[in-house]
Hints:
The complex is a heterodimer. By secondary structure, chain A is mainly alpha-helical.
Amino acid sequence: MNLTRIKTIYFKELVDLLRDRRTVIATIIVPVVLYPMLMLFSVQAASVQTGKVAQEQIVVGVPSREDQNTLIRLLANEPTPKDEDGQPDTDYKPLISRVQWVITKDIKSAVQSHQIGCGVLVSKVQNAGDPLREQYTFELLVQTDQIRSRMAANRVESALRRIGQNRVDQRLDSLDVSRDVIDPFFFKQTNLTTSGSLLGLIMPLLLVLITLTSAIYPAIDLTAGERERGTLETLLVCPVPAGELVAGKFLTVVTIALLGAMLNLGSVAATVYFGGLTDLLGAAEQSAGDLPLSAIPIVLLALIPFAVLTSAILLAVCGFARSFKEAQNYITPVILATLMPGMVANLPGTQLQGPMLVLPVGNMVLLVRDLLSGTQLEVYQIMMVLLSTSLYAGGAVALATQMFGREAVMFSDNASIKSLLSRRMIRASKYPSMGLACFYVAMLFPVWFYVQTALQRKFDGDMVNVLRWTAVLMPVFFAILPALMLWYFKLEMKPTLALGKAAPRYWLSGLLLGLSMWVVGHEIFVIQEYILPIPEALIQQQAPMEALMKNQPLWWLLLVVAVVPAVVEEMCFRGMLLNSLRANSRRYIGLLVTAAAFAMFHFLVYRLALTFVLGLFLAYLCWQSRSIWPGVLAHFMNNGFAVLRAQYPNVVEWIGIDPASESKHLPIHVIVIAAVLVVAAIWISRKPMDEPQSHRGTETSQ
Amino acid sequence: MPMIHSENLAKSFPTPDGSQKLAVAGLSFAVEPGQIYGLLGPNGAGKTTTLRMLCGLVVPTSGRAVIAGYDVQQQPLAVKQVLGFLTANTGLYQRLSVRDVLVYFGKLHGMTTPQAKDRAAALIDTFDMADFATLRCGSLSTGQKQRCNIARALVADPPALILDEPTLGLDVLSNRVMLNFVRDQRDAGKSIILSTHYLDEAETLCDRIGLIHQGRLIAEGSFPQLQEQSGEHRLSDIFLKLIHEEPVHIV
């Protein structure tokens, strides 16, 4: 990757887009001018409408003259309501003076056709005429989605309630009983709704929508638009790899999407802040002070991975289109598919927990909601949302790169997914492209998370079964499916999965790393405790696992905890993913990307640093040796030590380690020996293995 | 050693009914430095596909192409560095000025900003574009756009040029500009592949002509050689005669 060239492409695209009237209108004018205007206008219009309706006559329907007379008789004695200080409201006009009566047999239809505001049925009368024991049952027919109907019903009900209260007071007086006898409890409700929580309700989906819509125009313009104008061909004959072209374009789309989101968020915040909208929206009295201005930068930060994700998806989708119009057709289903999980997440009561943590878009909506409403969030929740979204974005970018400039998309008259994916049309090659491998790993992430969550749920703490099924399913997702994919895309299985033999020196390296990696892992864990202590609840959750490590047969534990993960994870990460990067990037990038993906698949923030570093060692070993087997040995030994430590605490104690505590540093002699072994392992394998001669055409798939 | 060398280059495309359509069937030819090679043929003969394979835009089904010693499949970026590509349909960025476009493409070819600016200034001078160099491409006339496009193809001063129907739809004046440009480049020692429908242009311009029909090279040689072999005077007559006969290879 040449960063200077990416920067050149980025700035050119940005200038090109910002000189376009359409971008300026969609990204700047709409949010800054139109949006607050619309918001103020609609809220004020609603307020004016409510006030107007409140002044109108109330149309009440009754089924008979008799019922009308009963109601008129009762309402004639309506007491004036009191304000908060207990003083009569002098502005109040009695309901009887504002009611227009309509007598109709079919009250239901009359309400539904808006001929009357509400209907009142006097359904049951007991002890009529006896002022002390008279009792009525009223049935109110109302259509709550209609403001007139709702207000009419409210007015009638509150008037009748007050009359009822009055009667109770009279009856109690006549019996010489204090009202306190029947009112043991009093309630006062204090509204703590803040503008933050109100924004939390409306903003997340809105921001998601705005980010998405801001990205649409640039995404189309930079792909299908460029193709339509005849400039794409020129660009593709420049000596620039497709990955760099996509990177430059992608960064431009992300910038515009974020600019749109930022302007919108600022605009909404300003409208609420200065426009005093919180009262109208129903928040507590004061409005300006409680707006969580401090949350806005965090929300923006959280929006970055989302903008990255949507931009990448849009670029990938628009990359298929040959014209602006065609791209627009492709985008409609994408918008729906993006908004669906967002809307699911926005349902009341949904929490940022479990599967919601990795639900694309949905997790972002929940995160923004919680940040704006001031809900306390755990670090792992935020990390999980950001990491999973970043991973999906990575997958989408990989797909966009894969598609960009493909001849089937560029020149075929029937460019379709079918022709791109038709096995017959695929040229055999040695390694998978970076896009293909990254896409697979990104898609596997939520799938594997859901599999794990489902297993935990199904077996509800029965760790033996959880482990057993994990060991069965792991080879399917991490080895068999990747192998099928390699077969389908006509890629060479042996070099891609690095299944070849390794030279003895790499085996020695693997052995030394296997002996020492657990020490490195342990120390990282202990150091991390100072910065990011593991919550007590999580330690409790791990308890069944620890018990199981002690009680199950050793061979079984070694099989499910050490052998299976060692083999299949090496095949997927150090095999497929690392080798796709080998052909397209430098060693350090290959190692970092593979280690990061490996760490993310452990799903726990507290294990990120540890698994990342172990991933680096394993990736280095595979990169140098061109074989996964030394890494399998090291990986197996590392996981196996965890089992042995649990099963043989005496031995552990013998070498000076406290078996009861995982949060204490290891004895210095253990650390020194491990450090020497790690350095030796790296030194021994410093010379990389030469690539075996390829007998098939190109290096990577197109 | 030829600058451009194609060896049994072939390409087939899938058809909607699932079969394969052979667009180019094993094309072999070579272009020396300072030579204009005319790749001629009717619509659908496979000219554009061949040129796209040479540029690395389309992957050949079989065969190989080498430009300036670089294999198009194995070293695509090196090939693109030594290649200029121009078609009549090539668009320009409407919202960028002529100068911006030239600087942009210069930088994409690995120049630093000052180098790209110097190169752009030199090209603006060479093609007499000073009057409209700061105007956005969207506001230029067809002739001005064409000059800008030519300059764009020459940004990296490539030793090999691929021109696909460069005079399609141009008026007499613009046409003359283009043909002069092609001659000048040949005189400067560049290898040029020119694909065109206008056979009279090819007669006067090309040092060597390859006639292709249905993806195959049916004749190759200089214009006088083709005349001699076929007994016809005009290239169009030669072509019509040849497509009804067995391939004639004239070396």
